[in-house]
Request: fold
Amino acid sequence: MKSLLRTKSNKVREASRWRAVQHRDERANGTFVFAVKTTGIYCKPSCPAKRANRENVLFYDSFLEAEAAGFRPCKRCRPQLIPSTIPHAEAIIHACRTVELKGDSMSLRDLAREAGMSPFHFSRVFKEATGVTPKAYANALRARRMRTMLQSSRSVEAAIQRTGYRSVSRFYADAEGQLGMTPSALKSRGKRETITYALMRCSLGHLLVASTAKGICTIELGDDPLKLLADFKNRFADATLVAGDKSFVRTAARVIALMESPKVGLDLPLDIRGTAFQHRVWQALRKIPAGETITYSELAERLGCPRSVRAVASACAANRIAVAVPCHRVVRIGGNLAGYYWGIERKKELINREKRDSAKGSD
Reply:
């Protein structure tokens, strides 16, 4: 009953938000942002830009949720700015500017003192206004600056100094999780990477497996092998792509074995690429036991961000390592299987196989 009520409530809320977008309702600014899948941009409800089609629109509770899902702020309506109508808006805006200028050199206690609040109250007010904690806000800004600096600095070390990290070792400890790849690979736009791949048939159609020196970076499924290969080459356009030899084909065969019988497991290393938020979601996916499913809202709760269901769903959709990062184990409320990059029928079959394997294991 609670699940049905939650589903109905979500539909009502989305319908209300869509009406606000259609009417460019300024009263809705600050309560949510909407993102357009076809442009990769997010806006505030009152944005004067041309309206997108409903099927291409996603809603997020905060601008950082939208950015965590990979969307960029609209340059016209500037949705990342804090509305002046929210409680303590002036104090939060000042804190955001302070974080932008001083990074993590300002502690939570320092920020709270400047705002005239206790650290606990300030943290709660800040999160209500921005959707994230002050620390997460600082990390997101720093990662964004780092991406920009890596493209313009003469070296990675120079970019680190300009971005405000306290030490080089501190940066490298967090770099891949925040940037989605090594800083040197990001600076060179992947041109120095060599990626080996193999394209094979399997019971679910065609399978493309690719690996860097670090580990498997792609497991894709599809009906058209030529399209699979073309999409893969476009995704890694700046890398050196090498067709796998017999040894690598045996590696790909281990992935096929995993799909045929999930209980065999996969002990191959993975090179998982994404934002820090996507990494959190994908790591949580790998902890879901084979044969079990959970809802997107349950996954969001496990991550400690129950209001970020949309961002969690977007992170699942962004996964490009099928089966090994088991986004097929996440379903909608009521068990609906909608939402799988490689097709609903494949998702259904993978879930059924895992349930059969689990049932055999318990006999």
